[in-house]
């Protein structure tokens, strides 16, 4: 029987709670693989085993597994009888099918400790049979072929090549959060990073257009589509900030525009998150990268918030962030032209705004009174159009 074998990463450290995380990973895998490529996904002795359908597509499976968090590695293999003589024949057949291989090593993992042959003894036995029958040479390091055998109760799993996964925690295992999403390089990577930690991440995009419909057809929609491959239930909310801009144009000192606008976004996002039962905010801040991301300005913008703010990129430099963006497929989209909110901010912002000064300017601006009317304009992108939703 052909199978897909999946080993998870840090789920194995979860002790009594491990079953919850295993089930979350299985749900994600089942949604992606069953019934087209696998008949089922089973949890089996700290691993997941999916019997493959007759018409399964390995390339499609690889693409799907590249979007799944929680996988340390996976392998295509076979479920075979675990009797020693039968295992010898199966290992020899696997070695003969390995074109171009000249050296090999056998790895045995005896999960079922009642199996009558020790792991070392079985390695020697299987390796001896492969060397004798195929002429391949045993090489302990840098071998051409690794033959892996896992002994489980009632069966054995046999495979050769292992492929690394995304690691992290399974989708949906860490609650639902809201990412302040600009469409630049950083915020998509921040959203992805928290998805990788098991969070269900919705996106909130503040835009400068009079209506939400004007965002349709821009890179914001395309970036959301990419992130949905990792988190299929991720929602994109669009929100115009023209009310704030009109008030700020009259009352906000130019040097304070950047911090005050970020303050407005945080307060509005917090109110919106609370209305949707989202438990945290996410930003793409990297400490010291730009004026708005100095320690003083971040403290001023986030002062007094009632929700935690996660900043997964806080210690990364731009090259670190760009590498991830390129790997997950958002980099080129992020570089497309777009009239984002940053283009409206001061060219010479103050870099050390005190919390008290920010709060005083916030009161002068009447910022609190702008939040509720702004939330009345929130729209939800449903894949074809943007529809208004209730802010309550």
What key phrases describe this protein's structure?
392 residues, alpha/beta, VC0802-like, Rossmann fold, 7-stranded mixed beta sheet, 16 strands, 38% helix, 20% strand
Distance between the termini: 53 Å
Structural class: alpha/beta
Helical element count? 13
What count of domains describes the coordinates? 2
Low-confidence stretches: none
Could you describe the 3D structure shown?
By secondary structure, this protein is α/β, with parallel strands linked by helices. It folds into 2 domains: 2-167, VC0802-like, CATH 3.30.2130.30; 176-388, Rossmann fold. The chain is built from 13 helices and 16 strands. It has helices at residues 18-33, 58-65, 84-96, 119-134, 186-196, 219-230, 242-251, 257-275, 295-302, 318-328, 331-334, 355-365, 367-375; strands at residues 2-8, 42-43, 48-51, 71-80, 103-110, 137-138, 145-152, 155-159, 163-167, 176-180, 200-207, 236-240, 281-282, 309-310, 379-381, 386-388. The strands form 2 sheets. Strands 1, 2, 3, 4, 5, 6, 7, 8 and 9 form a 9-stranded mixed beta sheet that branches. A hairpin with a 2-residue loop joins strand 7 and strand 8 (155-159). Helix 5 (186-196) packs parallel to helix 6, helix 8 (257-275) crosses helix 9 (295-302) and helix 8 crosses helix 13 (367-375). The longest helix has 19 residues, at 257-275. The mean pLDDT is 94.
């Amino acid at each position: 029987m052909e199978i897909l074998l999946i080993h998870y990463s840090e789920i194995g450290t979860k002790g009594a709670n491990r079953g919850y995380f295993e089930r979350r990973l299985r749900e994600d895998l089942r949604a992606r693989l069953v019934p087209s490529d696998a008949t089922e996904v089973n949890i089996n002795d700290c691993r997941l085993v999916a019997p493959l359908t007759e018409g399964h597509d390995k390339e499609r499976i690889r693409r799907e597994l590249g979007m799944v968090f929680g996988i340390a590695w996976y392998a295509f293999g076979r479920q075979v009888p675990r009797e020693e003589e039968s295992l010898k024949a199966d290992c020899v057949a696997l070695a003969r099918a390995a074109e171009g291989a000249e050296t090999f090593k056998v790895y045995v993992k005896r999960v079922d400790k009642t199996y009558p042959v020790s792991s070392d003894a079985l390695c020697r036995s299987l390796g001896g049979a492969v060397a004798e029958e195929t002429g391949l040479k045993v090489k302990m390091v840098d071998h051409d072929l690794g033959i892996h055998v896992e002994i489980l109760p009632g069966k054995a799993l046999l495979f050769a090549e292992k492929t690394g996964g995304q690691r992290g925690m399974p989708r949906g295992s860490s609650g639902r959060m809201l990412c302040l999403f600009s469409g630049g390089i950083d915020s998509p990577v921040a959203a992805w990073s928290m998805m990788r930690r098991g969070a269900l991440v919705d996106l909130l995009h503040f835009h400068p257009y009079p209506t939400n419909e004007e965002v349709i057809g821009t890179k914001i929609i395309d970036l959301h589509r990419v992130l949905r491959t990792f988190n299929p239930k991720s929602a994109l909310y669009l929100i115009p900030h023209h009310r704030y801009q009109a008030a700020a144009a009259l009352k906000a000192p130019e040097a304070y525009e950047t911090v005050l606008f970020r303050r407005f976004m945080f307060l509005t996002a917090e109110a919106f998150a609370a209305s949707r039962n989202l438990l945290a905010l996410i930003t793409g801040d990297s400490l010291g990268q730009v004026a708005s991301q100095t320690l003083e300005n971040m403290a001023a913008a986030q002062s007094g918030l009632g929700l935690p703010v996660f900043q997964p990129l806080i210690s990364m430099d731009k090259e670190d962030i760009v590498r991830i963006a390129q790997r997950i497929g958002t980099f080129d989209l992020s570089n497309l032209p777009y009239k984002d909110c940053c283009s409206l901010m001061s060219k010479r912002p103050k870099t050390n705004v005190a919390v008290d000064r920010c709060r005083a300017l916030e009161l002068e601006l009447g910022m609190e009174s702008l939040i509720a009317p702004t939330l009345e304009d929130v729209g939800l992108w449903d894949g074809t159009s943007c529809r208004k939703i209730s802010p309550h």
